[in-house]
Amino acid sequence: MLLKKKNKRRGIIRVIIRELGCFFKGVAKNLFTREFLTVLIPLLGLWELLPRLGIVNDRLVPPLSEVAATFWTMIAERGFVSDIGDSMGKFFLGLGLAIAAAIPVGLLMGWNISIRKRVLPLFQLLAPIPPPAWVPITVIIFGVGLPMQTFLIFLAAFYPILFNTYGAVKDTDPRYLASARIFGASELTLILRVYFYSSLGAIIMSVKTGVAMGLVMLTIAEMYGGRTGIGYVLNEAKDYFRISQMVVCMVTLGVIGWFLIEILKFVELKMNIWVNAK
Amino acid sequence: MIEARNVSKFFSIINEDRTADGITAVLSVSLTIGDGKIVSLLGPSGCGKSTFLEILGGLQAPTEGSVFIDGVQVLEPLPSTRKEMEAYRKKYSFLSPLANRMWKNQPKHDVAIIFQDYAIFPWMTVLQNVTFTLKLRGVPRRIREEKAVAYLKKVGLADSLRKYPSQLSGGMRQRLALARALSVEPKIILMDEPFAAVDALTRERLQDDLLRLWGQTGITVVIITHDTDEALYLSDEIVVFSPNPGQVRNRFEIDISRPRRRSDPELLALKARIMSLFKYDIDHESEYSI
After folding, report:
1. Nearest Cα to B99, choosing from B132, B60, B131?
2. Nearest neighbour of A188 by CB, restricted to B54, B103, B124
3. Digit-coded pLDDT (tens) for B144-181
4. Phi-psi region at A57: left, alpha or beta (left = phi > 0; alpha = psi -120 to 50)
5. Residue B287: per-residue pLDDT
6. Structural domains of chain B sorted by starting position, each given as residue range(s) with its CATH number in brackets
């Protein structure tokens, strides 16, 4: 019995390792294609050469090697890794809350017309307020720090996930519902086993949008209120006119966003297996 | 026994020029379908037979009249007076009358339905599709899988238990839908143009499969079709619908023992009689054609 359990655990670990291998292989394959490298390498070369040859002002556009060196010193001396970790912690907290709140509300809104009629207009009124407009009032209410930043990220990611989930749930093929209903499915089962799965593709798509919006608000939130994080470092670099540090922050944010989207693509592939299993 | 008493269904639609219009999909259809029979509802497209089938299954409420399955009313008709309307609203303020119970799975009637486009769940494997419906009927977990596999074997899908519906051919999907419907051991199966989306050869095989499984179980089958040959080959009784509005035009009992030959002279004679009914329609109403 114990052995069986142990074997099972070992099996799970093996599956995880295999899936991770698949993921990184897929990512590398996407990025390092011959076609893309023929574009990327000359671009990096230009970035290095143009400032060095004095064609553009090297004080305004630092060459690649200088940016790389700055990145290294920032990690070694400034603890930039902990800044990245800090930002990611906030980001995932906010995004996780947004997912946890938006998907159930979206499901309920798509499922029942009387809930939809009561709740949807409220969200439709609140959603058009651009998330950055929330910054001043959140700073006053929550103060500067984690709650305020998390709330802003939550706000940015919440609406796209909510509206896409709701739309997809509402458009669930009535034939699926009819065939589940006639076999005796309760409304709860319908929500969990039919509505959710039939809109899963759209939900994952909307989480991608949520990631993009969340990163925007992460940067803004850290620039306006905080003592740590990538956005704070970026803002500080502006004050001291350290352009290469700014570039490091920008590139880091870009890489993080790209990597998260890659993860979501992988999740989509795994969860939507019935679409791809041809 | 299924008993439809004066069932009518009206729809209101809004035209492009913003005027309201009413459509009569089904007009006072009365029909009794005996236990263990195969009955075909035959008619051209748009004659309200699909609507009628959904009313039989409780997926739509009739505007007038009522349907009884073994003496139990399927769905109450929509209210017509203001007072009735208030009571109706109160009763169904949160869930629609078509909705099932909130928390617990429980079928209202022992009915299964098969649609033309199968309506099997693409996010479940073949096996999961069947075990899910068994779960809805409250079959205990231990015997669910066993039972599902048994029924999938009956329709010849035992080799593709772990496949997803998108990996199956049209005929296999329809057989899966059949296995799913049969697995819950219903008293009645409603089929909405079940074999319309597959090629002719597969269709004949599926028809034979259906007859074989029907012979083993003896359930009541109601088939909607616009294929006269199919209706003649399968059914004990053919109910011919006429469109605009959907009404029962004629009923034919077929007393020919199974297995039937598709080219049986008696069937062909009956086919000529049924076709002459449609021909009459074409001569007199130019709005549609079969």
Report:
1. B60
2. B103
3. 999 999 989 988 888 888 888 888 888 888 889 989 99
4. beta
5. 52
6. 35-61+106-284 (3.40.50.300)
Average pLDDT value for residue range B222-237: 89
Q: What is the mean pLDDT of residues B5-10?
A: 88
Please write the tens of the pLDDT for every residue from A149-172: 999 999 999 999 999 999 999 999
Scanning the structure block, which residue is given the tokens 């596999």? B149
Average pLDDT along chain B: 85
Q: Which helix (H) or strand (E) holds A7?
A: helix A2-31
At A250 the pLDDT is 92
Q: Spell out which residues of chain B touch residue A184, defining contact as CB-CB under 8 Å.
A: 100, 105-108, 136-137
- Judging by beta carbons within 10 Å of its beta carbon (0-12, 13-18, 19+), is residue A143 exposed, middle or buried? exposed
**What does DSSP assign to residue B39?**
E
Res A278 pLDDT > 50: no
Q: What CATH number does the domain located at A64-276 have?
A: 1.10.3720.10
Residues of A in contact with B120 (CB under 8 A): 179
Chain A, nearest residue to B102 by Cα: A187
pLDDT for position A3? 56
Q: CB distance from B60 to chain A under 8 Å?
A: no
Maximum separation of any 2 CA atoms in chain A, in Å: 75
CA distance B92 to B32: 29
| Residue B114 φ then ψ, to 5° | -130, 125
The CA distance from A202 to the nearest CA of chain B, in Å, is 14
Chain B's closest residue to A275, CA to CA, is B166
B128 touches chain A (CB under 8 A): no
> B34: burial class by Cβ within 10 Å (0-12, 13-18, 19+)?
exposed
Query: Does the pLDDT value for residue A69 go beyond 70?
Result: yes
CB nearest to A184's CB, from B94, B105, B167 = B105
Note the helical H segments in chain B.
49-57, 82-91, 126-136, 141-154, 170-183, 200-217, 228-234, 265-284
Cβ contact, residue pair A185, B105, below 8 Å? yes
Share above pLDDT 70 across residues of chain B, in percent, rounded to a whole number: 96
Summarize the confidence of residues B55-84 as an average pLDDT.
86
Enter the DSSP assignment of A119: H
Residues of A with CB under 8 A from a CB of B: 112, 114, 173, 175-176, 178-190, 193-194, 197-198, 200, 273-275, 277-278
Q: Which of A249, A206, A1 is nearest to A95 (CA)?
A: A206
| Binary contact (A183, B121; C-beta < 8 A) | no
DSSP A101: H
Q: Are A200 and B123 inside 8 Å of each other by CB?
A: yes
**What ipTM was estimated for this complex?**
0.84
pLDDT interval class at B289 (50, 70, 90): very low
Q: How many CB atoms lie within 10 A of CB A163?
A: 19
* Cα–Cα nearest to B201, from B179, B170, B173, B178: B170
Q: Do B121 and A176 touch (CB under 8 A)?
A: yes
Q: What is the pTM of this model?
A: 0.84
Q: What is the mean pLDDT of residues A98-124?
A: 92
